[in-house]
Design a protein that fits this description.
Length: about 80
Amino acid sequence: MQGHPDKRIDCLGLFCPMPIVKTREAIRELAPGQVLEMMSDDPASDADMHAWSQRTGHPLLGVTRDGAVYRFLIRKAG
C-alpha cells in the first residue's frame, strides 16, 4: 500500500450513502494523482467504494480491514 495519503477523511459512525458523499467531496479538493484515505466502519462501504471507484474512474489502490474499520486508498484520476 501507499505511504502517506495526501488527505484523510474519517467517516466512522456514518452510514450509506455518507461515506461515498464525503469521499466525493474530498476527492474534488485533490489534484490528479493525489491519494485520499477514507476510514469507515459501515459494512456496506466495501462494496460501495468498489462500485464508486469503477463508476468514477478514480482507482481504488487498496482496502484494508482492522476489525470493523475499513481503510480505503483512492487515487484521484487525471
